[in-house]
Write a structure and sequence with these properties.
This protein has 538 residues and is mainly α. The chain has 21 helices and no strands. The longest helix is centred in the middle third of the chain and has 50 residues. It is a multi-pass membrane protein.
Length: 538
């Protein structure tokens, strides 16, 4: 089916239930995710401790202290996107959220390419999250710097640091893959614990650093620490990579919709809460770090980032203790991203839309999770690390590339959603309905078109910014043309490979999405019998 599922202004068949037996999908995944665990999935993917610590030094080196202002700009843009996603999550609470939403808005051909790009982007995001361990673990104990020994340079841009990052990242991927295989309740418990530690860690860090100021908050008004020449605007745009990398993945709560209790009510709220909490916490963390840093001009902050600020200002014991909180956040982030990618792959596979779909679309009867897809995502991320083991730009290149892919996939939802809103404007726009408590589904109402249009404009601009062939992002050697253009080359090759498979398998004639109602009604006894029994929410 290459056309949209149905005219969105209509509510077919008088409604439905959250039980997927009535959706046309058998309830195979187990519902073990409660409200906090759903929030934890989105918050862990964003993971301000992981990503801010990983890329704070990069943002500062590219834009100086004034790079802070990229944060509220990216936050405002992504909040517009999250509001659009929250509406869709209430109406289509189903795994493979981005793929499913795009397919039902624009047809399965568009949806397939969006899902294909999203899977590749998520695998690379898992890899980028895993190597964040290098920004933390050697600061806790020098013995974690295995390549070159404890005395080697652990900075992420050095050869020894980059190679050690690959090693630590692969070890972390083994651990997160095992947790994912064990079951949804184990995964939910692990991410919930990780998020609790992360929130406590962020609060503690912000309070401590605010009480150790070297300068006032007005530091963000000047590009102090920027060593570039010429106009500042280009440097400011480049420094926005840090904020763009952090504030993605809030949609991962939608990936777990089929495993979430009351998803029509829970998922839209957790998508927004995850982003808003991360936006506020991240802004405070950046400002407090800039205020507390011992120096903004000696190169230490650009090289060591917030890890250097902690150990320099708080001393060995307290600084390392707080870095342990960051290490827990890195684990939870990697786990959440891998889980999200596995659910996306599973959702496409059960439609017969991927190679080896019969294996990828299976759910373990024992654990209630798609084991094969979890392994494939973990192995794919490890391969992405290993093939770049001698590339000192692995951190910046992987970060920018994976986020560019996610932004492209997000555009594959927001653009057809905007087109649908405009076409259906005279007949009410998105369909109305009720959630599991009988309340109206989350809706932007008359603000939908304006919010959606601004979201598309922001995403398009940031996508161009992310894939721009900057040497300081993609080619630290400064002399390898294909590295500099690697983002465009990789995206082009990925699309070409996908198009070849799509055409060879004639998927435009084979993929047939099953119906998902836009509103909730109480399930029948038969549908209730299919659902997961006895498990309380995590």
């Amino acid at each position: 089916m290459s056309r949209p599922e149905l005219p969105l202004a209509q509510d077919p068949g008088g409604g439905g239930t959250t039980g997927h037996a009535l959706f046309g999908y058998q309830q195979e995944l187990r519902r073990g995710v409660g409200g906090f665990a759903s929030f934890a999935a989105g918050f862990s993917f964003v993971s301000i401790l992981t990503t801010v610590f990983q890329l704070f030094g990069l943002g500062f080196s590219l834009g100086g202290a004034a790079f802070f202002w990229t944060w509220p700009l990216v936050f405002a843009g992504q909040l517009l996107v999250a509001l659009c996603f929250a509406e869709l999550a209430a109406r289509w609470p189903i795994s493979g959220a981005i793929y499913q939403w795009s397919s039902r808005l624009a047809g399965t051909t568009t949806g397939w390419f969006v899902g294909w790009i999203m899977i590749i982007g998520q695998i690379l995001t898992v890899a980028a999250a895993a190597i964040a361990a290098q920004a933390v673990l050697p600061g806790i104990w020098s013995g974690f710097q295995i390549v070159g020994g404890p005395g080697a340079d652990p900075s992420v841009g050095s050869p020894t640091g980059a190679q050690n990052a690959v090693l630590l990242g692969c070890v972390l991927l083994v651990i997160t893959t095992v947790v994912n295989i064990l079951g949804i309740r184990q995964m939910a418990a692990a991410t919930s614990f990780g998020v609790t530690v992360e929130i406590i860690g962020v609060l503690a860090l912000v309070l401590i650093l605010f009480f150790l100021p070297e300068r006032g908050p007005q530091v963000v008004a000047h590009p102090t620490g920027w060593a570039g020449h010429g106009g500042y605007f280009g440097a400011f745009l480049a420094s926005s990579l840090m904020a763009a990398y952090v504030m993605v993945g809030f949609d991962s709560a939608g990936e777990l919709a089929e495993e979430t209790h009351s998803p029509r009510r829970t998922t839209p709220r957790t998508i927004l809460r995850a982003l808003i909490t991360s936006g506020v916490g991240g802004a405070l963390l950046i400002v407090s770090g800039l205020m507390a840093a011992g120096s903004l001009t000696d190169g230490q902050l650009a090289a060591g980032g917030l890890s250097w600020v902690l150990t320099d200002r708080l001393g060995g014991v307290l600084g390392r203790l707080l870095l342990c909180c960051v290490a827990v956040a890195v684990f939870a982030c990697t786990l959440a991203v891998q889980t999200s990618g596995a659910r996306m792959m599973y959702s496409m596979a059960r439609e017969g839309a991927l190679p080896f779909h019969r294996h990828l679309g299976k759910v373990s009867a024992r654990t209630g999770t798609p084991i094969t897809t979890s392994i494939v995502v973990g192995v794919g991320a490890a391969i992405a690390l290993v093939v770049n083991i001698r590339q000192s730009a692995i951190f910046t290149a992987l970060s920018s590339l994976c986020i560019a892919l996610l932004y492209l996939a997000y555009l594959g939802v927001t653009v057809p959603l905007l087109v649908t809103r405009i076409r259906q404007r005279g007949s009410g726009g998105l369909p109305v309905g009720v959630d599991e408590t009988g309340r109206p589904l989350f809706s932007l109402g008359r603000w939908g078109v304006a919010v959606n249009a601004l979201a598309v404009l922001y995403q398009a601009g940031m996508t161009v910014n992310l894939i721009w062939p900057r040497a300081e992002i993609y080619d630290l050697t400064g002399g390898t043309w294909w590295l500099r253009w690697s983002a465009l080359l990789f995206i082009g090759l990925s699309l070409a490979a996908g198009a070849g498979y799509f055409q060879a398998r004639r998927l435009h004639r084979r993929i047939e999405l099953r119906h998902v109602p836009h509103t909730h009604t109480e399930p029948t006894l038969d549908a209730q019998a299919v659902a997961e029994p006895a498990c309380g929410p995590v």
